[in-house]
Amino acid sequence: MPVRHVSRVRALYRRILLLHRVLPPDLKALGDQYVKDEFRRHKTVGSDEAERFLQEWEAYAAVLWQQANENRQNSTEKACFGISLPEERLNDFRDEQIGQLQELMQEATKPNRQFSITESRKPKF
């Protein structure tokens, strides 16, 4: 990643791992490993790709922060995390990314998981 992104990357990486602390243990472990792998995989990308990468992860962090706050306020209900991925967005993904999504979905939907993936409300940015 370009030098001008380094401090922004580090801060975002730390922020995401901190946000993951509110997740159920299985989902936290899955999320932490995925974040670490993705940030490592994108260490050497060019400036344009680095900017897109950061924007997507910043949006993820904002949604997770919002959902964590909503779940805290609705503590009697089962915690819900995640958002739907519109099918048209998949057209923007490379084959490698589609494969990663499939692996992530398989891991997240294994039996006996401690979390649920549900349709969510639109994020309030």
From TrEMBL:
Q: Where is the composition biased (Polar residues)?
A: 109-118
Q: What is its main location?
A: mitochondrion
Example GO CC term: the record gives: mitochondrial matrix
Task: Give the residue ranges for region: Disordered.
Answer: 104-125
Q: Which GO terms describe its biological process?
A: mitochondrial respiratory chain complex II assembly; succinate metabolic process
- InterPro entries linked to this entry: SDHAF3/Sdh7 (IPR008381)
> From which residue to which does any coiled coil extend?
none
| Annotated localization | Mitochondrion matrix
Q: Which UniProt keywords apply?
A: Chaperone, Mitochondrion, Transit peptide
Subunit composition and interactions: Interacts with the iron-sulfur protein subunit within the SDH catalytic dimer.
Please describe what this protein does: Plays an essential role in the assembly of succinate dehydrogenase (SDH), an enzyme complex (also referred to as respiratory complex II) that is a component of both the tricarboxylic acid (TCA) cycle and the mitochondrial electron transport chain, and which couples the oxidation of succinate to fumarate with the reduction of ubiquinone (coenzyme Q) to ubiquinol. Promotes maturation of the iron-sulfur protein subunit of the SDH catalytic dimer, protecting it from the deleterious effects of oxidants. May act together with SDHAF1.
- Return the similarity comment: Belongs to the complex I LYR family. SDHAF3 subfamily.
Name the record gives this protein:
Succinate dehydrogenase assembly factor 3
